[in-house]
Amino acid sequence: MTPRDSSDSPDSPRNRWSDLDRPPLSSTALRRGLVRDGGLWRQVDVVQRTGSTNSDLVARAAEGGLAEGVVLVAEEQSAARGRLDRQWTAPARSGLFFSVLLRPAEVPVPRWGWLPLLTGVAVATGLSRVAGVDTALKWPNDLLVTVGDEERKAGGILAERAGDDGVVIGVGINVSLRADELPVPRAGSLALAGAVNTDRDPLLRGVLRSLEDWYGRWRGAGGDPAASGLQGTYAAGCATLGRMVRAELPGDRSLVGEAVAVDGDGRLVLATGAGVQEPVGAGDIVHLRLA
User: Fold this and answer.
1) Locate the BPL/LPL catalytic domain: which residues (predicted)?
2) Is residue 13 part of a domain?
3) How many structural domains comprise the chain?
4) What is the pLDDT of residues 83-118, one digit of tens each?
5) What is the pTM of this model?
């Protein structure tokens, strides 16, 4: 089912202008700025509230006939999910909550694991240009900002398969979240990090244009992370590298070591105290201290 696009409706059940510091997004304006002949983005829908944009877009893709380049944006999510099915919520219009459908037919499926990392690079690049705030990436899917002298998470990325030939990538970014609205003390937002621009319209356009650029490079190189420049760029912006970390692995196992590289498969390589290098492909990473 195609979601009802209510971003431009004056009859929304909520007062869209109840928080003048957080104006609503306009699907019409976003389409005008992003959808073009020969471009990646074909459709941009904005809904006032949903459970999860990722779940909605995966379900729409399963119905068939949904082309690559669909973007679904929500002003508010009631059942947003991160990695490992963690739940999180945020006030309406306080951030960017969106999902995109990609179908990288030219890329071998084993290289699709780079898509969350590619999205992280694109998001960080787009936000730095538009918001003027320094961002860093925590492997594999977190966006970090500095608030005061403290490193905090301001965003996350979740990739899910959509049938045999598609991937839905969800992005959540805290934009104007105030200190008293933080879900946990270690969370952050672009506003708290001193962003020069917290207008979500140009922020979203900047992120999606950056994602289109990086996705085009990666797809044009057949998904080769080195040839596309993705591997080097990710490593340069990854705050995890050079740190002592603890990897909390499936099966209640953990591994401690220095994060020394991101390999060609997108895995984090840890140098352990035993003198061996071990790649980690899945798990939670805890930054312990600077190496």
Assistant:
1) 29-219
2) no
3) 2
4) 545 556 789 999 999 999 999 999 999 999 999 999
5) 0.91
